[in-house]
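Assemble and predict.
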Amino acid sequence: MTAAEIHTHKHRWWRSRSVQRFMQHRLAIVGMVMLFLLTLACIVGPFLLPYDELYIDLRARFSPPLSGDHYLGTDPLGRDIAARLLMAGRISLLVGFFAMVLSTAIGTVIGVVAGYYGGKVNSALMRFVDAFLAFPSIFLLLALAAFINPSPVMITIIIAITSWMEIARIVEAEVKSLRERDFVMAGRMLGLRNSHIMFRELLPNMVGPIIVAATLTVARAILLEAYISFLGYGIQPPLPSWGNMLNGAQQYLATAPWLAIIPGITITIAVTSFNFIGDGLRDALDVRNDPA
Amino acid sequence: MAGFLVKRLWQSIILLIIVSMIGFGVLHLTPGGPLSQYALTPGMTQETMDRIAEQMGLNRPLPIQYLDWAWRLLQGDWGTSYRDQQPVLTVIGRHLFATMLLMVSSTVISIGLGTWIGIRGATHRYSTFDYTATVGAMIALSIPTFWFGLVGIYVFSLKLGWLPAGNMYTIGDGSVLDYLHHLILPSIVLALVNIAIWSRYMRTATLDVINQDFVKTARAKGVSERRVLMKHVVGNALLPMITLAGMQLPNLLSGALVTETVFTWPGMGRLFLDSLGYNDYPVVMGLLMFSAILVLLGNLIADLVAASIDPRIRLA
């Protein structure tokens, strides 16, 4: 390949096989479209709706969907569900996204270090990973949530603390398989620092599996946030999140089922989008098919 | 086998030690620590707090405290519930049966359905059934379990009136049939995610086996397709599922917690949440440790069973 060819290749990343395979993956496209529309609605929607997400109208409590200006109805305080749903989306998606960033960072560092150094470092770190995996994540998450001040930032952090192990395992396995390759040996002989070999030479080779795992981690993080907020230990009202909108929905299930149905469907759509995209990325980036 | 047993046991013990350190860390390194319960008491002064800290041995160095705590844990002294002054293990024991009942019945459902869907998907690869099952599994994995429970209650309890909306039995009844009636909805709700996981794994495992030489040999010998499938394919595909069942245990426990909340099921998950609500930290910590130990034990048993069936695992 000549320099010119490399040059053009770099500028036409969208022509690469991976991108083309991704674009042919029907589910992935469906996921991308759903996620795009949902994100757009969460960003723009609140400006277009007639009501503020915190505005309380006690005369309009429990309005069913499509009643007047309350397109999706109102909650037990007469707040507009559409407005709350979209503001909640901002929070839930951001928590999910940053929990993914944080847990991917933790998992990658631990995985790379464990895989690269091997031996005792590896067994110590990987036993630590195994030990974390032994705790049912909801139990650990709730125990942590009970001790902290439940701000969105802290919720993001504790979700990350309970979600990094999968990525650590994936990265460790990848590094182990690459450790003895020539380019690593060459790096060592050149006297490159270990950190340089780990993060500059090895890491770029496993971007595919990391991206796939990270996408699925967003899905998982959104679900975890929904669980703990539903139970009242996550994002605290009046700040809306998809999970805390469902908190209390059970007691009104007979009289106001939309309180439960609307946020639940939204969570399912968001999580399904990430799972579809993750599946498409797995095929496109040719990541070893590991169904889970 | 003996060598494998010793190696596997040793690994579990090491894991148990690390697990206990994490549990201890969660309890002690968070703001307030084990004292946070007393800090809420009205009229609490710093001197009283200091005295309680000294009585509880909290002014000793952390490693000493850990060893003391772990030693008492080993002897079965898991502390006393703040709420009803009973030993933590007794409290947990009272809620164990309900959770086990729920987990076992939901596992029966998910393994049954998941195996069937997985095998059918593999033998009818790329059919409408296979495609629907694949997409369906991905959606099932995206539905929040607690919300699925709410929808189930809405449809089957409130609208159709077929199934009870919660609890494990009707007060004053409590017959086996009554238990089963209450068990149906929560078991199905908890099973949903696992049906998806099992069917995916089973599909992959079946596809792996179906193309192997011994299956071709069986076919070449003229064994009927049905017998090939049941005897050679399913038997071999199910083997890795034993290990998988062990690995899925933490997720199953998490799911049980969520399901129990929605269905007011009197199990460990319900106990965990009630204890959180009362700041009953000894029980919260006890359940955290207990569930992790349960998972380690489950993994150990799954590995031993798999190894006793398949000699290849022992050598790995």
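The first helix of chain B runs from residue 2 to 28.
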